[in-house]
Specification:
CATH class: Alpha Beta
Strand content: 25-35%
Shape: globular
Structural class: alpha+beta
Oligomer: single chain
Strand order of the largest sheet: 3-4-5-6
Distance between the termini: 23 Å
Order of helices and strands: EEHHEEEE
CATH topology: Nuclear Transport Factor 2, Chain: A
Number of helices: 2
Helix content: 10-25%
């Protein structure tokens, strides 16, 4: 039985459980902070860092922006995506062309959107965040 469901933004097909969380986090990372009307705390504050030189300071700011986007509380008191709690960010690659790839590891709460933060055991809770050509994409890892 699915704990949560939605539609795939590209195909219109049904998405359930962690696949739906992956899409939801993708929406967060492709929305600039403050771009969603009436949801001023929703979005990714690191958009301005895309395309900058990959210095230690820039990468640290980018990682901090990732953590902020996934933990900042909305007006209802829940994080933007309450079904996923970020635990670890692991850099995979940073190219001279500005392309970046990181793995986000976290805890999956299938009923987090309902306020039940009981973790799901045995479920993969890793995401792959990639930036190529200034475009962010999120996929299951």
């Amino acid at each position: 039985m699915a704990h949560s469901a939605g539609l795939n933004r590209e195909t219109g097909r049904l998405l359930t459980d962690f696949d739906h969380v992956v899409q939801s986090i993708g929406v967060i990372f492709t929305t600039g902070l403050g771009d969603a009307i009436l949801r001023e705390w929703f979005g990714f504050p690191g958009m301005s860092l895309l395309g900058k030189l990959g210095t230690a300071t820039t990468i640290t700011r980018f990682f901090r922006a990732i953590a902020l986007a996934l933990t900042i509380r909305q007006l209802n008191g829940l994080p933007a995506e309450p079904r996923f709690r970020l635990v670890k960010i692991t850099p995979v690659s940073l190219g001279r062309d500005g392309n970046l790839e990181v793995i986000l590891e976290g805890i999956y709460f299938p009923r987090g959107h309902l306020g039940d933060f009981t973790p799901e055991s045995g479920v993969a809770s890793k995401l792959r965040l990639q930036s190529a050509g200034g475009i962010l994409t999120v996929s299951g890892a």
